[in-house]
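User: For a reading group we're discussing how well predicted structures match intuition. Take Radical SAM/SPASM domain-containing protein. Before you show the prediction, I'll give you the sequence so everyone sees exactly what went in.
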Amino acid sequence: MSEKFEKIFIEITNFCGLDCSFCTPKKQVKKLMPLEDFKKVTQKVSPYTKLCALHILGDPLSVKNLSQYLQIAQSYNLKLEITSSGFYLEDNIDLLLNTPCIHQINISLMSALYQSKAVNLKEYFQPILRLCKMHQELKSEKFINLRLWNLDKNFNPPALNTEVYNLLKRYFAFRETSALKIRLNYKIFLHQARCFEWANVDSTISYKKGFCYGGIKQLGILCDGRVVPCCFDTKGIINLGNILEESLEEILQKQRIKSLVQGFKDNNLVELLCQSCSYPQYLASKSPCRN
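Assistant: Thanks. Here is the predicted 3D structure of Radical SAM/SPASM domain-containing protein, as structure tokens, for the group to look at:
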């Protein structure tokens, strides 16, 4: 069958070990998708996409046997995106750069800026810069995106970004910091975007109109196999079914996802979680905060 989704998010763990002030306020009990379940998931999604991201809420680099997950994904010819806080990077640099199926490595620099306890940024950046150095030495074709998604609504950076810019300038030759995408070196970029507020069904904000790619170009799978329309549904509020118990084709034929998708196409937000999510506003402004 032809590929349906541009990207499917597979959460192999919901654990990150951090306490970022911008993250979803209520986290669930630590979970890990067993290898046998991951194999079932990859087997079922491989006909529907060629690109998977191994996160929804957690940090995949925190998984001790990550190499085994990567081998399974590679056996099903899946390209992978790895998104990490950077705090578990030290022991995974070789693995990331030498695993053929990894297409892109994203480091969320905001993770170091918004902790309850101050982080030594020079120490934090050491493994990140080693990753970039080895990437260049290997002449790697993988993309590395250093993400600063904390700009205000007018795309202005907060003052705490200054130290990050200064550290990067010591290593990379660039001057401009106001651009949203800055080329630091071959296939290495500083990517900036506005900050994102997590969708909260208890919020007083309610949007009725909007378009989203959830369920259309993207799909998410939580640690326990629950299928959700996007990577913002970390708690499985829009539970479309369980891929460990059903085929993806069966799940996609259910009325709930059909109504969700048709609503987006008609510019209507039919789910309560979607009505409390500002991501459609990012799409409308052509400056999405997350991919």
